[in-house]
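Re: that chain you flagged

S.,

Sorry for the slow reply, it's been a week of failed gels. I finally had a moment to sit down with the sequence you sent. For the record, here it is as I used it:
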Amino acid sequence: MMREYKRYDDYKDSGVEWIGDIPANWQITKLKYFTNVNMGQSVDSSTVDVINNGVPFLQGNAEFGDLNPKEKHYTTEPKKIANKNEILISVRAPVGDLNIADKKYCIGRGLCAIQPKNNLFYLYELLKTSKVYFDKISTGSTYDSISTKDLKNIKLPKPTEEEQQKIASFLYQKTAEIDKIINKKENLIDHLKKYKKSVITEAVTKGKLGDKYINETGELVDEIEMKDSGIEWIGEIPEYSDVIPFKRISIITSAKRIHEKDYRDKGIPFYRSKEVVRLSKRLKAEARNYISKELFNKIKNRYGIPKKGDILITSIGTIGQVWVCDGRDFYYKDGNITQIILESNNYINSKFIKYCFDSNLIKKQYEKMSAGSTLQALTIEKIKELLIIQSDKKIKINIVNYLDNKIQEINMLIKKTKQSIEKYKEYKKSLIFEAVTGKIDLRDYKLEGGEELAEHNNSSETERERISAVD
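Prediction finished late last night. Pasting the C-alpha cells below so you have them in one place:
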C-alpha cells in the first residue's frame, strides 16, 4: 500500500534500531532537546479528595481507559502540573500509553507531561510509534516503568518544522479516512450481530426460516396458523407450539467440587466458565488445569459426568452462555456453571435449547429478572422458571439445520469483516510509522483542502480534538 507514496532521494542510518534509515537531511535528537519534559510527583494524600475541590489529579495509567483524561480525584496542593494540550504519557505499565490533556491537571508519579516546542500532532504520532522502544527500556519486577532520564534521552527523528507540519496534516487527513472505513465496518459487525439475534429469535419463537414458515409437518410454507402465547413480550407463536418453563423438560444440577490438590498438568480437561464461554462461541477451549483419568472415572461411576447432549450454562459472571456437550471427556467446576439434563436427551433437542438461549426470548427474561440492576447470577431456581418454546422433534430438526447454516454464514461475514478491520488498523499503524520516520516523502503531497486546511489541522486545539477523535 505504501507504493503510492514516493521516497526521499537520499537516506542515512539513524543509528537507532527501531527507526532504521532516515532522510539524509533529517536529524536524530533526544526528546529533551525539542520538548519540555515534566515528570509527575506524588502529593500528600491528605490533600486528595473525590469532591471537586482544587486541581484534578491524575496518577498512573488508570486514567487512560477513556480517550480524554477524566479525573477521579482532586488535590488542593498540586506539585507537578500538566497544562492543556500537553502530551500525557504513562511511565508505568502499560508504559508508553498516551493521551492529550484537555485541561490543567496535577500529575502523579505514574505520569509525565511533554510539551512539544514544534508540532503537537507529529510528536504525538511519533511517540505512539516509539512504543516498541518503551517496551525495551522499561524495567521493574513488580511492574514495568521508565525513568525520567530514559524518557528524556529517547532518540527520535526530527525533520524540519515545515516537514513536521506536512506530515501531521497528511496523517490528520489519512488516518481520518482510515478511521471512517473502520467505523463503518464496526457498525456493520454490530448490525450483523443484531441481525443474527433476530434470525434466531424469529426461528425459535415464530417458526420463521428466512421468508418462509415451517408448518406442523415440517414443510416450508408462506404462512402458518398462529396463536397468542399468553406472554406479552413473546407475542404470537405457531399453533403447534407451546410456551413452557424449563423445569418441565429438564433436570438441573451442578458438579462435584474438585479441590486444587487434585489438579494435574495433564489428563482430563477441567473446564471453568471461561472455557464454556469459548465453547459457546465455537472457539477452542483452553483448559488451564486437568484431573487424573482415575479421578475422572471415579466421579463418572459415582456421580456421573456430562453426556453428549447435556447442556452447560454459565451461571455466575458472564451469565447465560450455553454449550451443548459433544461427547468429549472433560469435567467442569461447580459454582459458575450449571448443568442441564434434558429428559428427551438428544443432540438436536439440546441445540434447539441453545438457540433459545441465544435468542431474545431468554434475553427478555434476564432483563425482567434483573429488574433494573445487573443480573449477577442464574440460580438453579431461576433457570427452572425460564420459559422456552416447545414443539415436535421434526420441527426442531428443520429449525436447527436452518440456523446452523444461516448462523455459520453470518459468523463468516463477521469474521471476514473483523479481519478486514485488523488489516486497516495495521495499515494505519504502518502508514504512521512510515510518515514520522521519513520512509515516505510527503513534502510535495497535496492535501484535499490545500494549505488553509493544513494550517487549521495543526492548531493546538484542533490537534487535541483530532487526536481524541482518532484514538
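What I noticed first: The longest strand covers residues 111-116.

Talk soon,
D.
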